[in-house]
Amino acid sequence: xxxxxPGRPATAPRLLRNLAPxxxxxxxxxxxxxxxxxDLSLCKNxxxxxxxxxxxxxxxxxxxxxxxTHLYLQNNCISCIENLRSLRKLEKLYxxxxxxxxxxxxxxxxxxRELHVESQRLPLGEKLLFDPRTLHSLAKSLSTLNxxxxxxxxxxxxEILENLNQLIAVNNQVLHVxxxxxxxxxxxxxxKMDLNGNPVCLRPKxxxxxxxxxxSLEFLDGKEIKNMERQFLMNWKASKDxxxxxxxxxxxxxxxxxxxxx
Length: 262
Hints:
Elements: H1 12-17, E1 48-50, E2 70-72, E3 92-94, E4 102-103, E5 114-116, E6 129-130, H2 132-137, E7 144-146, E8 166-168, H3 177-186, E9 192-194, H4 206-213, E10 219-220, E11 223-224, H5 227-261
Parallel strand pairs: 1-2, 2-3, 3-5, 4-6, 5-7, 7-8, 8-9, 9-10
Antiparallel strand pairs: 10-11
Helix pairs in contact: 3-4
């Protein structure tokens, strides 16, 4: 990690010039010192960049970091996702704890596998939103999404993320089980979902209904779904459905008998 220059606050350019640009791949710039990313043109081999816990308000000066695969920008003052389209090799993006109201500006990042945008510091009553263009761009690549603690009440728009296998959406405002059933019918590769702290978790048969609708889900709210649990629920549903069919058939037979008698 980079170290502070004695006698004065460290700055990104001075620190980066004191390192070997050709070999630099994982600089961790000092926290609480940087208002924005400085010129990284000397570091074209940069693959991992730690800029968390600073005072960055705008994402800038990353155009030269075309080999970047991991970018850590948690706990800054960022309100807009921008200037990332040149980072074609980016795989993991961490933006938790900022002021972002809309997930946007990620078009073209077709290799992005993980997106972490939890705990945005939003105005009271506002919720995190998703730009459809960004969701469409991430449809085939994104496998892990963390949107916890963002006052979100509807996640059906995530249906387009066909390769999503981990969804962390703790402490939001998701309310309806039927919305989750809709989503799970679309996300057939999802094996882990955590919705702890959402009102929907208090709904009757919440866990049972989600296990029944998703064959891929292995962990729900931090608890493993055992094969025995799934099989029991499937047998119970099959028995219930059979009783419904039988009851309907008997009811129809009774109606036919009454009709014949008349």
